Amino acid sequence: MTELLIVTAVAAEADAVRAGADLARVTVEPVGVGSAAAAAATARLLMRAEADGAPYRAVISAGIAGGFPGHAERGATVVGTRSIAADLGAETPDGFLPVEALGFGTSVLEADPVLLRALASALPGCVVGDILTVNTVTGTAETASRLADRYPAAAAEAMEGYGVGTAATGAGYPFAELRTISNPIGPRDRATWHVAEALAALTNAAALIHL
With a threshold of 0.90, does the pTM exceed it? Predict the structure, then answer.
């Protein structure tokens, strides 16, 4: 029986994780891009495992991401203390209001503390900080600055963690998010993207995870 479910957005990330993971103990599946697709597919994977009588012990959302300069540079590995739906809320004349301020739930998912400590211990030199989940990847310096001001503990930005975490924690599973950094967030400049380096870092991280 495998014990750990690691989900990624796309197949290239799943392949990178599989290249390092102990596949006797870890199941790795791509679940799609974006929070909604990731939540739905993760929920299906968890229900299927339960139906088969082999539920997972924990769930990790993993993949490559953009890093906040000064917090997580290219090639870094980030372990999320919180997965935050950074654009879940409402715009107002006075600025952004998170969904909590509207009285409609929460935009913040805390990583399981035991899982978080285990990951941070297994990954020497990793950055530990918040990971933002967005529906639209940041592409301007203005948006990057606004997010950094709103979420000063943010180290990385991706598109699936909050959705995966919602499915996992809603079903009672420990959850955490892990990202490796391919580029700084901000103006979209493909010349600054080091995807191969980030995928290699993902393989290296997977090889060190023995939970």
Answer: yes
pLDDT of residue 35 exceeding 70, the answer is yes
Q: Which phi and psi angles does 128 have, rounded to 5°?
A: -110, 120
150: its two tokens: 């709103």
Select from 116, 135, 115 the least CA-distant residue to 57.
115
Radius of gyration over every alpha carbon of the chain, rounded to an integer in angstroms: 16
Q: Which 3 state secondary structure label does DSSP give 70?
A: coil
Q: Where are the beta strands (DSSP E) in 68-110?
A: 77-85, 89-92, 95-98, 108-110
The structure tokens listed for 120 are 């941070």
Q: How far apart are CA 67 and CA 19, in angstroms?
A: 23
Output the six-digit token pair for 205. Answer: 């991280």
pLDDT tens column, 70-89: 999 999 999 999 999 999 88
Tokens of 94: 């006075």
180: amino acid identity, one letter? T
Sign of CA dihedral 96, 67, 160, 119: negative
Q: What is the pLDDT of residue 1?
A: 47
Distance of CA 203 to the CA centre of its chain: 15
| Domains defined along the chain, listed by start | 4-208 (3.40.50.1580)
Torsion of CA 132, 135, 138, 143, to 10 degrees: -80
The pLDDT confidence band at residue 101, using thresholds 50, 70 and 90, is confident
